[in-house]
Amino acid sequence: MEERRVGSLRFRIDFSQPIYEQIVQQFQSSVVKGEIERGAKIPSVRELAQALHVTPNTVMHAYQEMERSGLTETRRGQGTFITSSQEQIEQLRSKLAAVAVREFLQKMNDLGYSGQEIFRLIQDEERDESL
Amino acid sequence: MEERRVGSLRFRIDFSQPIYEQIVQQFQSSVVKGEIERGAKIPSVRELAQALHVTPNTVMHAYQEMERSGLTETRRGQGTFITSSQEQIEQLRSKLAAVAVREFLQKMNDLGYSGQEIFRLIQDEERDESL
DNA sequence: CAAGTGTATCACATGTTATGATACACCCAT
DNA sequence: ATGGGTGTATCATAACATGTGATACACTTG
């Protein structure tokens, strides 16, 4: 609902999903789209927690997931940094996309939609978005 | 994991999602694909609960969601029936598909994928599936 | 050493999911 | 009318996920 800023980053947090998931997704998106540079330092746990009006524990949860997935590297005492490996980032992007595609097609298949129909629905939706 | 049968119906329940959600989805899929006829009576709460090795409350939860969405009509003392309205079914199918498409495109957009790339990924995935 | 990092661990609260049990309300065939 | 099969409501209980708030510890840098 509301947009919070911290440094050059912008965050929107709502109640539709766990907060730590939203934090992860927004970092993923920012990195993958090149809005955050490789190797860049991201806000400290405490700093981001304060900016988002959230407990450090919640941010910590997000940061640990990000490290597990290879999106970030954390250095105790120094901070948390976006991975400097372009390959890591591309792999993560591909993997997330592959999962999304697979789940989507599974869902559409359960609803009995064929490839043709799926393409048509996507085109219709994209047409709507571009208004 | 395991497949459970009750009458002519088949159910697979795993631990990836809430049980009641899986029940709803599998009825949705069966109805939308015509594997269950319109107006057909589905198993009683107690019967399905026993077949799935689950509490009646859990099945009840699923059945109430199914009625809320218009998929079924429940008649106290008689049982639960798939809606006899073809229009209802088609509306539900369209609505579920529209939601799936919208969420998918949102996710892909967050990952920075364009329409062209999305189509290509879908085609690749469908090619794999048809092996 | 001090300040700023990440990390770990409590206690606590809330909401969701699920179990298990009991009771009630309703419909239909006998 | 009664009995058996329906859906429905409610309660207690438990496990888990999510989030808050607080405290303490470990590490790095200046």
Automatic annotation (TrEMBL), chains A, B:
Gene3D superfamilies named among the record's database cross-references: Winged helix-like DNA-binding domain superfamily/Winged helix DNA-binding domain
HTH gntR-type domain residues: 17-85
UniProt KW Cell wall biogenesis/degradation keyword: no
Molecular functions per Gene Ontology: DNA binding; DNA-binding transcription factor activity
InterPro entries: Tscrpt_reg_HTH_GntR, WH-like_DNA-bd_sf, WH_DNA-bd_sf
Organism superkingdom: Bacteria
Coiled coil: none
Alphabetic keyword roster: DNA-binding, Transcription, Transcription regulation
Record's protein name: GntR family transcriptional regulator
Organism the protein comes from: Alicyclobacillus hesperidum
